[in-house]
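Example record

The entry below shows one chain as it appears in the dataset: sequence first, then structure tokens.
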Amino acid sequence: MVPHPIERLRWIARAEGETAAVLAGEAAWTLGELAVAEPAALLTASRRLVERLPGCGPLWWACAHMLATDDPIATARRVAAQLVSDTVGDRLADALRANFTSSDWLSATVPVDTLCQALARRGTYGVRLVADRDLLRPALRALGAVAEEVVGYRIEEAGAALDGAAALLVEPSLAAEAAPGPGSGRGRLLLAEPGVAAVVGEAAARSVPVWIVLGVGRVLPPALAEAASELAGGDLAPLDPSLVVTAVDATGLAPIDEALARAECPSGTELAHRGWRPR
């Protein structure tokens, strides 16, 4: 007997060890089925999902798409396909090949989902991975299957990981082109796992270029990104945008401002609305 969509959504909310893309794709399919069976429950279910997993950018992206559609099954199919066929790993592999040699060391922070995809296509680089203790071991296992050599470092050892590195690769949990402040242009909002900001700062101090990797669903409208930041609290931390100038997205290497301007996501007004969020 197939579980009710609500039961499957509860499983998604409790899942551990799955990539953001897998969670978001499963959520899209399940929300599509729920929208057909119980359309009135779609908004509440979407809110509960992002409340449970606020740091998962692709989940916000998928929920926003599902809330904005009149054809939930077709939209679920399209959203899931975009996540599964994400080409950013290919573009990252191309950029690495064009800019570095096999003797170069790359530093990276978690998550490493897109980096693993890139290295599966061209795994001739050594990687120095910097992460908190709890996240280090599973990420090392994933990279170990595709990289030439992998060495793990804790956050407090970032200096050693960055010494002589060709670049630092960071896949933020989510990103947005932030609204302008008084008398200023548009800004950037980059949110990542706690500890990543310190690694980025260390990279800047050592003149190691920082590349931001933006897979499908990572770039959100500003209101959604701010809502995610508020709900996630200490589980997400902002990166200093002035230390990052280069991004890798579906177009390849691009200035970060151009990449953040390509947020292909509905506004998600219902998800961003403050009235339902816990205080």
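Notes for this example: The mean pLDDT is 91. The chain has two domains: 5-85, 88-260.
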